[in-house]
């Protein structure tokens, strides 16, 4: 398997991780991925990209079981409001496609907020940067490779 940007970033920082390949399943929704891998959906995180009134982009990372609360999300980044970006804008903005968007290795580092429940996860799973690839790692290692803050961003 070819290394993805998130894997190269983790390798450079000497952060241990495990790659899970579920490409055969064709699943992209976070809940489906958690079920396919037989993992706790509270530990499988999805990466959502939004745009604020200011036109700045923001990344929100939350458990598969949760929905992003747009009001809470906007408040925690100091925006009046945020909206999900259209799928067609995802790749030009982040370098990733829908279903394979990782908070690691985006085209440009965007302000990132992760749901506060992540700090309590025994294991932390995020997209490996490609549909069908998940990375499992220790959440505490994430701060070595990603600038983010924790907040309550879900309904």
Count of extended strands: 8
Distance between the termini: 37 Å
The shape is: globular
Order of helices and strands: HEHEEHEHEEEE
Residues in helices, as a percent range:
10-25%
Biggest sheet, in brief?
Answer: 5 strands, mixed
Gyration radius, in Å:
14 Å
The poorly predicted ranges are none
What structural class results from the helix and strand content?
Answer: alpha/beta
Our count of helices gives: 4
Estimated share of beta-strand residues: 25-35%
> What's the overall average pLDDT, rounded?
93
Q: Order of strands across the widest beta sheet?
A: 4-2-3-5-8
Describe this structure in words.
The chain is an alpha/beta fold. Helix content is 20%, strand content 26%. The protein is built from four helices and eight strands, in the order αβαββαβαββββ. The protein has helices spanning 5-12, 30-37, 70-76, 87-94; strands at 17-21, 45-52, 57-63, 82-84, 111-115, 124-127, 133-137, 148-151. A five-stranded mixed β-sheet has the order 4-2-3-5-8. A hairpin with a 4-residue loop joins β2 and β3 (57-63). The protein is globular. The relative contact order is 0.25. The model has no long low-confidence stretch (mean pLDDT 93).
In short:
This protein has 155 residues and is an alpha/beta fold. It is built from four helices and eight strands.
Walk me through the topology:
Elements: H1 5-12, E1 17-21, H2 30-37, E2 45-52, E3 57-63, H3 70-76, E4 82-84, H4 87-94, E5 111-115, E6 124-127, E7 133-137, E8 148-151
Parallel strand pairs: 3-5, 5-8
Antiparallel strand pairs: 1-7, 2-3, 2-4, 6-7
């Amino acid at each position: 398997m070819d290394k993805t940007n998130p894997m190269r970033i983790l390798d450079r920082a000497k952060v241990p991780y495990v790659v899970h390949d579920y490409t055969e399943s064709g699943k992209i929704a976070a809940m489906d991925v958690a079920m396919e891998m037989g993992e706790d959906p509270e530990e499988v995180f999805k990466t959502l990209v939004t745009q604020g009134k200011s036109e700045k982009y923001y990344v929100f990372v939350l458990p598969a079981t949760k929905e992003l609360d747009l009001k809470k999300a906007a408040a925690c980044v100091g925006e009046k409001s945020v909206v999900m970006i259209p799928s067609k804008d995802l790749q030009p903005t982040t370098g990733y496609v829908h279903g394979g968007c990782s908070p690691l290795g985006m085209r440009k580092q965007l302000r990132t907020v992760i749901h506060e429940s992540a700090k309590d996860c025994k294991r932390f799973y995020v997209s490996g940067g490609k549909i069908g690839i998940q990375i499992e790692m220790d959440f505490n290692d994430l701060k070595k490779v990603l600038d983010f803050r924790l907040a309550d961003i879900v309904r």
